[in-house]
Amino acid sequence: MALAHKGITPEYVACRFGDKGRMAFAGYERYPLLVDGDRSIGDSWAIACYLEDAYPDRPSLFGGATGRAAARFINTWADRELQPALLPMIVKDIYDHLDPADQPYFRQSREQRFGMTLEAMAAKRDERKPALARVLDLLRAQLDGQPYLSGTAPAYVDYIAFGAFQLARSISPYRLVEPGDALYDWRKRLLDLHGGLGRSTNAYPE
Amino acid sequence: MALAHKGITPEYVACRFGDKGRMAFAGYERYPLLVDGDRSIGDSWAIACYLEDAYPDRPSLFGGATGRAAARFINTWADRELQPALLPMIVKDIYDHLDPADQPYFRQSREQRFGMTLEAMAAKRDERKPALARVLDLLRAQLDGQPYLSGTAPAYVDYIAFGAFQLARSISPYRLVEPGDALYDWRKRLLDLHGGLGRSTNAYPE
C-alpha cells in the first residue's frame, strides 16, 4: 500500500518460512524486504521511511517530520498492542494455511513464543476478545468524523492498521469486523484504494 | 504548553472542583477552558485544534493535516491508556492536596467511578505498576534516537504526554521516572522549554 501510495509498482516475490535464506544477501531473514536498485531495506517502518525520503516528490506517507514522528509512535503501538491482540485469533489459521514443509517450524517457534499449543491459543479466542475490542475501539474513535485514520485522505497510519486487517482477511475465516462497524466501512475504503490493490490477494469473504 | 508553543501568554484562572459554576457561561463544567476574545473552547484537544487554526502563522502544533490526525490518535490513546494507568498511582495524593471543601465530592465521584475506596486504590499501586510500565515503554521506544516524542523538535504530542507527567509531579511524591531513564531526560527537556514554564508550578522534587 505504501508503494502504491508512492505510485510504484514493484515486482513481488513470495517467500516461505523455509526460504528465509533467499533474503540473506541483504542481511535480513524476515520479510518484508524491499530491494530498490542496489539498496535493500528490511522492516516495514524502515521501508516506509526509505520510500518517503527516496521519493519526496510523490504523495507523502507522513505529511512532514512531525507527522512522521507521530506515525512512528502509532507503528510501535500497532506492533506492541494491535498485532499481539489480533494474532491469537488467527495463529492457528495461519498454521493451517501454511505449506506443510513450513508447519513444524511455525508450530515450534510460535508455541515457544506464546508458551502454549496453537490449539490452546485457538481455544482461548473468546476470552481474548475484550483485549482485541479495546485496541479496535481506539481505531474506531479515530474514525469519528473522518473517513480515514489519517483524516480526509489515506496515509501511512491507515496502511499500518490495514496491514493487520489484511493479514487476518487473507488467512483466517475469523471475522474481525462486521457490516455496520465504522472499521468495516474504513476497511472497504482501503480495499478500494489504489485500483483495488487490497482485493488482489486470496481472501475470505468480507 | 500549547499556548506557549504558539507564543501566547494567557491570563490563568485557577478553579476548584466546587467552582465549576464559573465555567457555566461557556457551557462547560470541566477544565481546561480557553477564553479567547468572545470564543470559549473546552477540552484540551479542541483547544489545541483551535489554537492551530486561529494562529496558523505561529509555530505549528501538528505539522499539517496528516500530523494532526496522527496526534489525535495519540491523544485518544493517552486518554484511554496513559491517564488510566497513571491515575491509580496518584489519585489518593490528589485527594490529600485538595481544598478540604472539595474533598467529599472528589472522594465520592472517584470511588464511584473506580468501584473502590481511594485508600484501596493507593494500596494497589504496586500491582498496577506493570500496566503503567507497559504504556511508559511505548513512550520510551519513541525516544530511541530522537530527543522529543515529536522528533527533533517538540510539538503537541510531547505536550499530551507531558501533561500527564506534570499532573503527577505537581500533586504526588510518587516518582514516575528516575534519573537514567530516557523519559526522565525527556521530561527535563520539556521542563526547560518555553522559558522553564513547566517549572513555574509547585511540584515535588524531580
Please give a structural write-up.
The structure is a homodimer of 206-residue chains. Chain A has 206 residues and is mostly helical. Chain A is built from 8 helices and 2 strands; from the N terminus they run H-E-E-H-H-H-H-H-H-H. Chain A has a two-stranded antiparallel ribbon. In chain A, a hairpin with a 2-residue loop joins strand 1 and strand 2. In chain A, helix 3 runs antiparallel to helix 6 and helix 3 runs parallel beside helix 7. The model of chain A has no long low-confidence stretch (mean pLDDT 95). Chains A and B meet through helix 3 and helix 6 of A and helix 3 and helix 6 of B.
Keywords, please?
globular; homodimer; mainly alpha; 4% strand; 8 helices; two-stranded antiparallel sheet; 2 strands; 56% helix; 206 residues
